[in-house]
Design goal:
By secondary structure, the protein is of the alpha/beta class. The chain has 7 helices and 10 strands. The strands form 2 sheets. It has a 6-stranded mixed β-sheet, sandwiched between helices. Strands 2-1-4-5 form a 4-stranded antiparallel β-sheet, covered by helices on one side. The longest helix has 16 residues. It is globular, with a radius of gyration of 18 Å.
């Protein structure tokens, strides 16, 4: 039986612009099980990116609870949130976010540096995940020597290096051509088949089809929860 990895209970997120209150999330409740592959979809301003930021402990809800592995994340302080981001969550971004003058190996090992892992162990782990994403032969190349798809594979390896409980990918194919984007999604699909929980934010139906479940956002609320066939517009 699948185990609940995370749960949000009636999450509300307000932003303040001067005296105006903008409610980005309006009471969002959802559960994601360990080993799921979930796509979050919705138009611009729907709340999907705000929700992803909350799941990634990059922000805290105004109201409601976020429970990750049984722990109330919404009650934690800044340092505790940083520790969870570094040990339990892997991030993949649209723009790769690699250090430009740093090799693939060093980019991948960066989370281990923050965790004060010894240098020899860092290199061993970083090489292992680069091999897992098919880039062991590019370990000593800097980003400018890599294609966009290869750079995103480095970013995925970096997300994997700390053996996270979940990978959060925000528009991971947005800067890639269609063929390369499919390759990246196939890689994420393969990682999911090995038991890694994946959550992807996307506005592209073709990308969402790689997921087993789709959460549709509109106006700060979840308006659909199913797969692409049962929950299509």
């Amino acid at each position: 039986m699948a185990k609940t990895l995370l749960r949000t209970d009636n999450i509300v997120k307000d932003y303040f612009v001067g005296t105006q209150v903008i409610r980005a999330l309006k009471g969002v409740s959802a559960e994601i099980q360990s080993g799921e592959f979930v796509a979050i979809m919705g138009p611009s301003g729907s709340g999907k990116s705000t929700y992803m930021n909350l799941l990634g402990c990059l922000d805290k809800p105004t109201k409601g609870k976020y429970i990750l592995e049984g722990e109330d994340i919404s009650a934690l302080g800044r340092d505790q949130l940083a520790h969870i981001r570094n040990t339990k969550i892997g991030f993949v971004f649209q723009t790769f976010n690699l250090l430009p003058r740093t090799t693939a190996l060093e980019n991948v090992a960066l989370p281990l540096v923050y965790g004060r892992t010894p240098r020899r162990e860092r290199q061993k782990k970083a090489l292992a995940v680069l091999e897992a994403v098919g880039l062991s032969g590019r370990a000593h190349h800097v980003p400018s020597q890599l294609s966009g798809g290869q750079q995103q594979r480095v970013a995925i390896a970096r997300a994997l290096v700390n053996s996270p409980k979940i990978i959060l990918a925000d528009e991971p194919t947005g800067a890639l051509d269609t063929r390369t984007g499919i390759e990246i999604m196939s890689l994420l699909q393969s990682l999911n088949s090995n038991g890694i929980t994946i959550v992807v934010v996307t506005h592209e139906i073709e990308i969402a089809r790689f997921a087993k479940r789709v959460l549709r956002f509109r106006d700060g609320r979840i308006v659909g929860d199913g797969n692409m066939d049962s929950d299509s517009e």
